[in-house]
């Protein structure tokens, strides 16, 4: 059997899908999460694997994290736990750094001591490059870039810490710079996921609000495609930072139109002035992930959105939101 994988942030949106995928591959999976934004309900499928799956409600900054890593001696750590929002990081940069820097160091130290072979880390392709000069942006554009939010700053700094642990302690890594991820289990109450937020409101017949003029663009990648990149990184991509997106720019207005068509929502959006710390345009060049991991995005935006909405309908998401009005 392949080695044990420890997934931090395992009860989160991306983390829970990663747990499901690794369990399906026959791995033993240990999930760690403090449930600050993650949900135990996201792990329903993983629990079905019985003794192959273990969950710990632990903060990655705590000493208890080291005990868990020591006990299970994972071959691989997929480190996803993070303060994962741009706006919260602007409001409280110290908290962001405590989770995204000190928490990261606690995880890396524990992994190095336990003899872990590799850490797979997710950084933010939407923030580490700052405002890119050319699109789609290539990985090398991060050198000398200036992230415009504390979240982007801590995510960018993580690469240097990972490189330090690789050099000094022999702990290998692959960093995946993710575009805007969307799909099943994304929290519609989070501040990052425009697809989940708009879908919930439209399903409830309520009017979504678009920050700014809605012509700002993002690169939207489906969660299953991201999970596939994480799985491939277990054995490939040593010492690399790789973009994981689609290379395509999609405006927020376009997302609104596509979701309105899938859901049958006939209203217009409301517009408000944009908040600080946000980019105008971004799309990620993913040629390197193709070459190094053998990874390509599979899911067309229209298909991914339709699947996300179908899942939300199954969960009764719109009905609940309408009731909470
Ligand atoms: N979703 C995206 O579009 C996107 C884009 C780029 C990068 N990322 C990165 O991917 C990772 C996963 O993001 P996600 O979208 O699944 O977000 P998420 O909020 O659903 O997942 C993060 C998980 O980490 C847990 N967590 C937070 N602080 C913790 C702590 N101190 N100790 C233990 N657990 C803690 C949360 O409870 C949550 O389950 C994050 O590192 C995020 O920065 C996400």
Describe the protein's architecture and organization.
With 325 residues, the protein is α/β, with parallel strands linked by helices. It folds into two domains: 5-181 and 221-244, Rossmann fold (3-Layer(aba) Sandwich), CATH 3.40.50; 186-218 and 248-323, UDP-galactose 4-epimerase, domain 1, CATH 3.90.25. 42% of the residues lie in helices and 16% in strands. It is built from twelve helices and 13 strands. It has helices at residues 13-24, 44-47, 63-72, 86-91, 93-114, 150-169, 194-203, 223-233, 252-263, 287-293, 301-314, 317-323, and strands spanning 5-8, 29-33, 53-57, 76-79, 118-124, 172-178, 180-182, 209-211, 217-218, 220-222, 240-244, 250-251, 270-272. The protein has a seven-stranded parallel beta sheet, sandwiched between helices. The chain has a two-stranded parallel sheet with strand order 7-10. Helix 2 (44-47) links the parallel strand 2 (29-33) and strand 3. It is globular. The termini are far apart. The model has no long low-confidence stretch (mean pLDDT 95). The structure holds nicotinamide-adenine-dinucleotide (NAD). Nicotinamide-adenine-dinucleotide binds at residues 9, 11-15, 33-38, 59-61, 80-82, 84, 99, 103, 122, 124, 178, 180-181, 192.
Cα Rg: 19 Å
Beta-strand share of residues: 15-25%
Largest sheet: 7 strands, parallel
**Assigned CATH architecture of the largest domain:** 3-Layer(aba) Sandwich
Bound small-molecule species: nicotinamide-adenine-dinucleotide
Average pLDDT reading? 95
Assign the CATH topology of the largest domain: Rossmann fold
State the oligomer. single chain
CATH class of the largest domain: Alpha Beta
Report low-confidence residues grouped into runs of 5 or more: none
The number of helices is 12
Helical amount among residues, as a percent range? 40-55%
Number of domains: 2
The topology string of helices and strands comes to: EHEHEHEHHEHEEHEEEHEEHEHHH
- Order of strands, main sheet, comes to 3-2-1-4-5-6-11
Classify the secondary structure makeup into a structural class: alpha/beta
Report, as a whole number of angstroms, the end-to-end distance: 50 Å
Overall outline: globular
Tell me the total number of β-strands: 13
């Amino acid at each position: 059997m392949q080695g044990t994988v420890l997934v931090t942030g395992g009860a989160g949106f991306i983390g829970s899908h990663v747990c499901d995928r690794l369990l399906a591959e026959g791995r033993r999976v240990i999930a760690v999460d403090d449930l600050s934004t993650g949900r135990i309900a996201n792990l329903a499928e993983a629990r079905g694997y019985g003794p192959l799956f273990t969950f710990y409600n632990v903060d990655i900054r705590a000493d208890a994290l080291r005990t868990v890593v020591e006990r299970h001696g994972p071959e691989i750590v997929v480190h996803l736990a993070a303060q994962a929002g741009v706006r919260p990081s602007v409001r409280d940069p110290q908290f962001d750094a405590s989770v995204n820097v000190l928490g990261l160091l606690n995880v890396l130290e524990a992994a190095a001591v336990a003899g872990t072979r590799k850490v797979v880390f997710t950084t933010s392709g939407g923030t580490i490059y700052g405002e890119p000069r050319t699109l789609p942006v290539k990985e090398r554009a991060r050198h000398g870039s200036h992230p415009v939010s504390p979240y982007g700053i801590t995510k960018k700094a993580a690469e240097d810490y990972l490189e330090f642990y690789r050099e000094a302690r022999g702990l290998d890594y692959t960093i995946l710079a993710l575009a805007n991820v969307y799909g099943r289990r994304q929290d519609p109450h989070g501040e990052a996921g425009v697809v989940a937020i708009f879908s919930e409101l439209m399903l409830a017949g309520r009017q979504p609000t678009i920050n700014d003029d809605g012509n700002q663009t993002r690169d939207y990648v489906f969660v299953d495609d991201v999970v596939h990149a994480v799985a491939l990184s277990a054995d490939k991509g040593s010492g690399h930072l790789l973009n994981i997106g689609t290379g395509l720019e999609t405006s927020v207005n376009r997302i609104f139109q596509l979701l309105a068509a899938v859901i049958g929502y006939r209203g217009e959006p409301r517009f408000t002035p944009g908040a600080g710390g946000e980019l105008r345009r971004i799309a990620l060049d993913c040629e390197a992930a193709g070459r190094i991991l053998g990874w390509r995005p599979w899911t067309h935006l229209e298909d991914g959105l339709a699947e996300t909405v179908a899942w939300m309908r199954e969960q009764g998401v719109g009905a609940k939101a309408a009731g909470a009005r």
